[in-house]
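User: Good morning. I'm curious how N,N,N-trimethyl-histidine would be positioned relative to this chain. Could you predict the structure with it bound?
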Amino acid sequence: MSRRTPRFIQAHQPDSHDEREAAIAGLRRTPAEASPKYFYDRLGSHLFDAITELPEYYPTRTEAAIFAAHGAAMASCVGGGAVFVDLGAGNCAKAARLLPLLDPARYIAVDISADYLQDSLLQLQREHPALDIVGIGMDFSTSPALPAGVIPSDARPVFFYPGSSIGNFTPAAAESFLAGVRAQAAGGGLLIGVDLVKPRTVLEAAYDDALGVTAAFNLNLLRHMNRLVGTDFDPTAWRHVALFNEAESRIEMHLEARRPLAVRWAGGERSFAAGERLHTENSYKYTTGSFDALLQRAGFHHNRCWISPDRWFAVFWAQA
Ligand code: AVJ
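Assistant: Good morning! Here's the predicted structure, ligand included:
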């Protein structure tokens, strides 16, 4: 019996010197900042999976319930035989549940953590022995442009961007990112999950859980930066902070220095006063109206959306 195996492509990686310089520039800024992409080393990806199991972290299960309730309606929008592009595929669990409904011609999983993706796709191939599976290791946060040829010219591309990861972009950056998706999705579309504005208490608990898993996820960024950038962050000197910035409609995560300290790297250092913060993540929250308007500005049309009964989360289908 011939068995398929996933194909892996490591997309062109941005120069590690440039990456390091960009990370250091963020550390030098006031307030200091680090890209949320530094959450996702192997441990960070597993910690994120643990977050999705927490009682306080509602997005994953709320979105899953929307897919379960409306998967058939979504499938009739998407249509069979598409090339299904999963942005930030991670453990591929969300796509795995939709694959039987969508019946795509090809499944393309894209994730920044390529080694984590390998494990997920080998497992997925065992469950779907006949499926054409491609894994792409790439940082698509700067551009969603896929390597040439992975979407055949006669294909109907459907992009899948669940989990409200679009919330990591500012609305202006989200608009240009989505315009970049639309440019590659001609004849197809985009299925995207969006977290909605809701009471502060619910939002803040979701990003500061009782067990401290989100705190560990946030602190793990320091270990990852130590490895990638060569900094000497001591995670025990920092405290996790999560707050809802209502004016900007976003959850912010920060790491706050517990005492005065300095962070050093080859060629420089930055001191932090006690209580001074390193901004690690924004997670924007939309209304259905504000997100529909954003999709339209990015060039999508005939948008449809399905909302959870508590109105905490929405999934949009947007035609390219
Ligand atoms: C993966 C960006 C959707 O913003 O909810 C979870 C990341 N950060 N808990 C989110 C995250 C802290 C997550 N996204």
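The radius of gyration is 20 Å. The domain at 7-11+56-198+285-319 is CATH 3.40.50.150 (Rossmann fold).
Let me know if you'd like a different ligand tried.
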